[in-house]
Amino acid sequence: MPENNTDSIRAYIVSTFHQYIKGRTVFYAIGRLENGETFGIADDHFQPFFYIRQSDLSKCQALSQARGCRFENDDWTSMDGETVIRVSHASHSRLRQLTKTLEHEKIRTYEADIRHTRHVMMHRGFGRCVRLTGEWTTGREVNRSYINPEIIDDYWDADLKSLIVNKATNPNGELLALQNYGEKAIIIQESDFDSRKDYLQEIQKTIHQLDPDIICGWSIVAVLDTLEKDCEAEGLSYNIGRTHHPPKKYKGQRGHEIQGRQCIDIAGSLNHIISFEDMSLENLAIELLDKQWVYDAEKESWAAFHKRGLELIEEILQDQNILELTLKRTNLTGLSLEGAWGSVAAFDFLYISDLHRRKIVAPSFGVDRSELQGAPGGLVFTPDSGLYKHIFVFDFKSLYPSIMRTFNIDPQGHAAAGKDDDDIIVAPNAAIFSREHAILPAMLETFFERRSQAKADDDPVASYMYKIIMNSFYGVLGGSCRFASRQLAGAITSFGHHFLKWTKALLEENGSTVLYGDTDSLFVDAGLDPEITHSEAIARGNEMCEWLNKEIQEKIRNEYKLDSYLDLEFEKYYRRLVLPPARGSQEQGRAKGYAGHVVNDAGERSVEIIGMEAIRHDWTDMAQQLQRDLLDHIFADSSSQELEDCVSQVIRDLKTGKLDDALVYRKRLRKPVEDYTKSTPPHVKAARLMENPSGLIHYVLTTDGPRPIEKVDFPIDYDHYLQKQIAPIARTLASIREFNVEAILTGQEDLF
Based on the structure, what is the number of domains in the chain? Predict the structure, then answer.
């Protein structure tokens, strides 16, 4: 008999799952303790359940075919106030069958679609960071095994073990490179073994010895899927988890659940933080680290090359804080590491957990749901194109979260508010909300406070994570969440419209001109003296911002009898601002595209480009650099002749072949080339000339059409680049700062 031990210790839950054993559904959790040991939990105290409305009890009982189904009144209610009945059964599958029957009969259910493991965590009020108290014994696959311990929420900074995996194939066979984060790499090569079977067994053995909580890499799901198929082909069992059970396939999806561990695709996680057209390791090593990852057989072995690949992956993980951000997000939302970046799931976990503290249940997805179409988007004030001097940008910080917090916008507060109540909050779209402090504003208040503390503690990772979680709430309420509502989303955006318009009107009443506005920001010409110094301009911007905030607070206090959490920030001062014309127009400005000459408090100057060609992936390096150079001239108050010379020089360099390396187009294949049947874009034509094309296609336009850069067998079509890349850039900026662009483009500038 193993010896029993009792203590209390903090733990991080890496993996959860459930199984039906001996007439009970058992909740399992596996993870890492704060002392570095691993643990497993088996808990059968909490059986699967969902809720129905009390008014549907008799119908549900009549339809119930599952023996042992229990109906209990726990004194909980639905969001609209009706008493609900808990329906439970020891078998999760039996309960699912009953749920489908009730759905077919149009009987409303509550929380019937929530996975049992998540239900346990939400209902019992704990997330991923917990404290375990109780007896434990030494386990076979983990250090400690707990049966029905006490589990309470207890935040701590968990230190998990992460394994980086990279797989490659060459003519000599496969290679798998593995490296525990911060440790030395291990290279397992098929050519070192007598058989493929031995090679595959060594991989599984090594993973178990390293015992990671997280397995990560590029396309890691595909790597592990292939490993599983290879094991099956060799007649080997496949299990790299912390239980005796093989990985469980996700229905209808690629990948599988590895009990006791989590898989993180690094490129997929990076997509939530940064965006590049090419998310390959080779490209990100260049973009993020300024390092090359190219194989040269004369300089290094195949194994050394992939060992270096692991080192680059680790550097990228450190540079972008991927694992730290993902772990922080799971700590805040209760989600697994694999699902940490899901906005809807995060909102569900947080909001339903708070509902449960109030003994209120959430509807199953699609139940008690209003129409979604019709909520307005962010308000945009269309600009007039031109070059402007001394412009202030004022920005409402975290506008939508601040609106939700100020005006008590909340799914439950909306459901509970009665139209006949005298003391309600009415949004500009006529949605009504209770004044009783609601769940969502309270959640946001906590997040705002924690973010402020994170900033004070110099913890940028936590600060960033609180920000993106808060900013995701509007998208969730206006999208596919169970709480989504046209009225809720419309209330938020209508308040945004209202205060952006009101602030614009206030500024213009007091002598300023609002040049442009978009959702939460206003670009303001305050009529400053053209010769004003940067310090005087910034001081004036701060004064205006302070005045505007006082006016906004006063308006909300007088009109709504509420304290304002809206916070207008003096975001930046542009010494010069270019608002380019919209396509096909000389006067109307382009929305979401501009360039400014920023001056900070210290007088340091920099060029900022938003939404223009210089930062868009679909323009060549030549065109991007031309636009940057012309903007530099404009912001430096250069002469028209200098602008003309700039364009002329680029045209000369183009035609003499000096810019050939800067003429490459980059476009991603979204599907196999053979699936492009209705139309054939240039990058697809180029891809059809390549062997095994995929991902980002690099090509140039020749006199015979598109060619991949590996097969440029015709002269480059310089006239194409002149007309399609140089001309649009030059004409756009010539409309802002006049110079003789047409003569330059036609080659006639030297005739007279």
Answer: 4
User: 496: closest CA among 480, 478, 479?
Assistant: 478
Which tens digit of pLDDT belongs to each residue from 428-440?
A: 999 999 998 899 9
CATH number for the domain including 583? Answer: 3.90.1600.10
Written as six digits, the tokens of 71 are 């109906």
Q: What separation in angstroms does the CA of 316 have from each of 263, 291, 742?
A: 17, 11, 46
Helix (H/G/I), strand (E/B), else coil: 279:
coil
Name the token pair of 169: 């194939």
pTM: 0.88
- Are 123 and 222 found together in one domain? no
| Cα distance between residue 261 and residue 210, in whole Å | 12
Residue 252, both tokens: 């209808």
Task: Give the pLDDT confidence of 490-548 residue by residue, as tens digits.
Answer: 999 999 999 999 999 999 999 999 999 999 999 999 999 999 999 999 999 999 999 99
Domain assignment present for residue 264? The answer is yes
Question: What range does the domain containing 633 cover?
Answer: 617-746
User: Where does residue 208 rank: exposed (0-12), middle (13-18), buried (19+ CB within 10 A)?
Assistant: middle
Q: Give dist(CA 157, CA 335) in Å, integer.
A: 16
Amino acid at 17: F
Cα separation, 416 vs 432, whole angstroms = 9
Instruction: With beta carbons less than 8 A apart as the criterion, state whether 535 and 599 touch.
Output: no
147 vs 152: CA distance, rounded Å: 15
Q: List the end-to-end C-alpha distance of the chain, in Å, as a whole number.
A: 103
Which string of b and e fits 71-110 if b means at least 16 CB within 10 Å? eeeeebbbbeeeebbbbbbbbbebbbebbeebbeeebbbb
Q: Are 282 and 293 in contact (CB under 8 A)?
A: yes
- My answer on whether 143 and 173 are in the same domain is no
Surface-to-core class of residue 201, CB atoms within 10 Å of its CB (0-12 exposed, 13-18 middle, 19+ buried): middle
State the virtual CA torsion across 30, 31, 37, 40 in degrees, nearest 10.
Answer: -20
Token pair in block for residue 655 = 């035609």
558 CB-near residues (< 8 Å, 6+ apart):
none
Which tokens in the block code for residue 323?
């694992």
List strand residue ranges (DSSP E) for 155-269, in order: 162-170, 173-180, 185-189, 214-217, 248-249, 256-257, 262-265
**Structural contact between residues 413 and 438, judged by C-beta atoms closer than 8 angstroms:** yes
Residue type, 18: H
Task: Give all strands of the β-sheet with 594-599 in edge-to-edge order.
Answer: 380-381, 513-518, 521-525, 386-396, 568-579, 594-599, 605-610
